[in-house]
Structure formats: C-alpha cells, structure tokens
Amino acid sequence: MNKTVLKTKELLDLFLDCERLTLPEMVERLQMPKTSVYRMAQSLVALGFLQKRGDHYELGLALLTFGSLVAERLDIRRVALPVMERLKEATNEAVNLVIRDGDEALYIEKVETSEPVRVYTKVGRRALLVFMDEKEQARYLERTKLVKIAKNTVTDKQALRRQLEEDRKRGYTVSYSELENYSAAVAVPIFNHEGAAIAGLSVAGPEQRFLPNDVARIVPLLRQAAMEISRELGFQGKGWQ
Fold first, then answer.
1. Which pLDDT tens digit goes with each residue over 120-152?
2. According to the 3-state scheme, what is the secondary structure of 132-190?
C-alpha cells in the first residue's frame, strides 16, 4: 500500500479526536518531520479536506460532501443482511432488523430460523428507545399511547421508563410475550456515523428457547453483530461500554 496515502490518512485520523490542531501538535502526534507534515497539511488544505484558521487546522467542507454522499447511498439492509445470516447460524434463531420511521418501528429484514418450531415475531421499539436522546425519549412517551397487544405488553409509562433505564444500563433489551404471546426476543441498537441509534437488531423465538442461560449465550453474539453493522455505517464509538 502506498506509504504517502497511509501517512495522509494518519494525519486525517488525528481529527477524529481533536477538533483543531496546530502544526506542532500534528508533528508531535505523528512523530514525523515537520516539513513532511506541513506539506501534507497544505496539500489537504488545497484539496478542501482541511482548512486553516490562524495557526490551527481543522477538517474541511470537502469531507462533509463525501460523508453526506456515503450516508445517502448506504443501504442498511445490504450491510446488515450477511451479518444477520451469520448470526442466525450462530444462534439458530430468527434474526430481525428494524428501523425507526417517525414514531413507529418499521420491520425491514428477517432471516428465519431452521428450527421446526417457529414464531411470528413483531419487532418492538425498545431497542431504539433505550439509546434515544433523553429529551426525545420523553417527548415520544408523552405523545404515544401504549396499547396492550400481548399478555406482557408494558402499558404503564412509568414502568416503561424504569424498564428503559434498566435496559440502558445493561445495553440490551429482553422481552417475553410483550408483542406476541409465548415469544421472546433479545435486541440491541445499531448506531450510525453520528452515534445515533437508527436501527435495532434482535434474535427472537419461542420463550422456552430463551431461558437465562440462552440469553447469556445470545447477547455477546448479538452485540458483536450489531457492532459490526454499526462500524460499516461509520460508527466510531464504543457502543455499550
């Protein structure tokens, strides 16, 4: 791989953690000759990938253009499907993908299990609500009526708030007969390049296959799959840590 390209990427990577950097700061972090760093920085300024304000450099608007195009063209279903198929093989349970569509959770992809006993599972919105901005979550709960659709559906808003707080602390949701009687699901959020929870990934099946030991086995596999999809979408954070 071309060394100049690699060094240029290393320079740009500095701005993932720092909004603004001077030339000496970049030299110190890169451990490269000052003249080399200066030439790279000036070339990136000329191309619009960096901009210089006084003694400081910061990311340029050209990167915003490319970033917006990537976000617009990225199909989450295309990114998620191969990961979902591997997760199904690892868990031998159905795997679902849901995105937020206004106040609704929109089911967009499912990889079915090969188990002879299956359940039709609706995908809930708790995995999206858990990592929603607190003010936005509060507004959502204020305007949304909670309707009982299965024997364990949570219809009390205070109880749901407590459940969401517990889910946030542990980083995943578990539900039993909340959307369909005798069905269970474990779900985690998928994050985009801005760190927003834009989708939920769940493993679902009959309640008898989701005992505590089963959930403990599924959660690490589910988290790994969701993080893999999130990384493909440009997420740079730590997720549930």
1. 444 456 767 887 888 888 888 888 888 888 898
2. CCHHHHHHHHHHCCCCCCCCCCCCCHHHHHHHHHHHHHHCCEEEECCCCCCEEEEEEEE
